[in-house]
Amino acid sequence: MKEEILKKIEFAGVVGAGGAGFPTHVKLRCSPLTVIANCAECEPIIKSDKYLMEDYAKEIIEGMEAVMQCTGAKKGVLAVKHKNKKAAEELKKAVSGKKSLSIHLLNNYYPAGDEQQIIYEVTGRVIPVGELPIKAGCVVLNAQTLYHVSQAVKGIPVTRRNVTIAGEVKEPMTTEVPIGMPVSSLLGLAGGVTMAEYAVIIGGPLMGRVAENPWQEFVTKTTNGIIVLPVDHPLIEKKTDDFNHQLKIAKSACCQCNYCTLVCPRSNLGLGVQPHKIMQALTLNNPLILADGQAALGCCNCGLCTYLGCNMNLSPHRFIAEVRTQLLAKKVKSSQEPGNVNPFRNESKAPSKRVLQRTGLTSYDTDIRHIGTVQTPRVVRIFLKQHIGVPCTPVVKEGDFVKKGQCVGAVPKKALGALVHASIQGKVVSVSTEYVDIMKV
Questions:
Q1: What is the pTM of this model?
Q2: Domain of 203?
Q3: What is the pLDDT of residues 354-382, one digit of tens each?
Q4: What whole-number distance in Å separates Cα of residue 27 and Cα of residue 155?
Q5: One domain for residues 97 and 148
């Protein structure tokens, strides 16, 4: 039964839909005590999982049960923010009478959806830097991923997902769209952009990336949001400012106040992440601080050190990312066990409301309309790499007619990856090493 479920998940091309994109059939080759559903949706503005939980709680629970069945886990916990009352209620109804499943309510703080935070909230355990959740007897899956697992068990591949389109658009919305839908089409569905000069963030506003060319962006399995902001918005400027320019400013402005470390959620779990030491290492040319990588390798890239922790308007999280990349390239690993959890961790949590205020996003975090499905776009672009691992190899050629759900990209033998499928029925009009374009006919 385990292999049968894993094969169905593999053939459906299920990956971590929360943003990581790790192939789920590989992730589930473990034997956890507890399966945790990450239903926190910690990024502000994004409502994709919120509406998914409200509409498809039963399917999410079916996905949980399938995961527990194939891994042998005896316990399943769904971690959801108490502020999402309707979603929590629907999940509670769906687990009613199921003794192995329970709901864990989370406070509305950022980043509540960080894997380390959720595991600690549910189990009281902390995973050493560089280790996987199975070290704590857990496996964690996003709500959208569990929904896709439930569909995979029924033989339905991943061809659609929920996406939020918000910010400077006329009609912010969350809707289910085909994989490969152009971002430009999504902006049109939301009534268009409200200003001439704007930037587009792919993903959540804090952890997402600024698109260099929004017109060349398409929805993938991990796209949960499209956020439009003024091009001169402080958040956009922080994300796009030249790194060398930031470094020059930091050398004179960083006063080692330590506040960036005090607000760091991973530091408060005793994981040794210390943004102020990263700043010191780079600005004072003191690389000995980074000898074991502990100060950087445990970072979750939430950006709190930048958006909440630095009163000098610096970007510590970009410095950490730079150092972390260098350490990983050198295959540096941290061997230290976690330290003590900060006894004032609860008091140190960053309320989402405060994060919104500090980032200038308050006006965009509103209730938005939810549309179940949208009209199929004329053309979709199915990227051959929407996951951690190697790109798929196209298994169709230009001129082929494909059905919705048909595999168009396969994983090379013994390689890490996930199949990709046609999200619409139509004609293959272009095939490259990066994508397959399909036109509706």
A1: 0.95
A2: 159-233+366-375
A3: 999 999 999 999 989 998 777 889 999 99
A4: 19
A5: yes
